[in-house]
Amino acid sequence: MDRLAVPPHRRLRLPRPLTPFVGRERELADLERRLADPACRVLTLIGPGGFGKTRLALQLGAGWPEDVLYVDLQARPGPRPLAADIADAGRHPPPAGVTLEEHLLQDLRERRCLVVLDGFERLLDHHPAAEPFAFLERLLEAAPGVKLLVASREALSLLGEWRYPVSGLASPPPDMDPRQPAAMEFEAVRLFVQAAQRVRPDFSPEDEAAGIIRLCQLVEGMPLALELAAAWTTTLTCAAIADEIAGGAELGHAGLRNLPAQHHSVQAVFRQAWERLAPEEQQVFRRLAVFRPGFSPAAAAAVAEATRPRLGALLDKAMLRRDAQGRYALHELLRQFAEERLAEAAETDRFQARHAEYYAECLRQWRADLKGGRQAEAVRRIATEIDNIRAAWDWL
Asked: Which residue in 124, 133, 171, 127 sits closest to 317, CA to CA?
């Protein structure tokens, strides 16, 4: 999709953020390709709060070559039909004698339009039944030129939905020397430096490079965490902020008055996500905190009693991620949050012990492989699980 080929007559209704958009070039290009595919009618950006789904959706909308309609479902007054939210955003009330849905479908029938539905999880809270999904199906059938770009903390689970997990901004790798100029070019570093320089005009990234890089690594590029941490630079060095984060300190709003209530702290964001989980999902989620950083499905089943459907539910609700090799992992800040819930449930000792026993048994098996004919395979597995092995050793 050519971002320059935007017709001047298009209707564009998008909010204008107060801060500049940073990075995400790879994600934008990938998402633009997906939206340009005629088969893609519903594209859902999935992630916990604070990971930049809204900003990514707005950036995509700004480059969309046709009409764009932005619907803020976070601000909806309460339970009501989804058609009312979309109609309000379009500012076209129905004439007398025509229902709101009929008028909306008629308005969109001949248009090529990207409808951005932001905060769809709020609608799921108000409408656990099928009503909104039935309406979306009618909308897509009646208006073939309409595409839906959805930002949500969980998947819609619709037939034909294209899912796109939104992760943190790119951060320097663990072995990168902070003195290398390239270290300061990573997206997470750029965002943090911009935010810090807004609150401290004399902030020098060169003087605090090592602390900045460690901080970005600890929060794994989470945009909200970076913005909140930057506000602390008025009183703390970046190295001290990183120490606070590593110690589990709450990343609060630090006096920022215009933050949405749901973004006043990283922990508040995670608490909202936690409360959306069913009790059995909460149980599995908190037990996964013993893994560092990732784990296999077999390990999750043996240690945390996690079935594949439960892992799938946590993936759908953006509380868990899976890599191309099929391994699962928690974002480090989410893992810290889960660790606190594990302690509250008085389950820490039990599941740390199960974790240690599991990896001790793995090492016994791999020891036999090292002495036999499967040395390369054993070395590969040990390398993959080295962080879990170290955590088990520390516990034992």
From this structure: 124
Q: What is the pLDDT of residues 272-285, one digit of tens each?
A: 889 889 999 999 99
Residue 334 burial (CB count, 10 A): 25
Within its chain, how far is the Cα of 341 from the centroid? 20
Structure confidence at residue 263 as a pLDDT band (50, 70, 90):
low
DSSP classification of residue 327:
-
Mean pLDDT throughout 98-115?
84
**DSSP letter string, 70-136:** EEEGGG--SS--HHHHHHHHHT-PPPTTS-HHHHHHHHHHT--EEEEEE-HHHHHHH--SSHHHHHH
- Is the model's pLDDT at 9 over the cut of 80? no
Report which residue type is found at 386: I
Q: Are 264 and 252 in contact (CB under 8 A)?
A: yes
* Host H or E run for residue 149: strand 146-152
Retrieve residue 304's tokens. Answer: 């945390």
| 329/157 Cα distance (integer angstroms) | 22
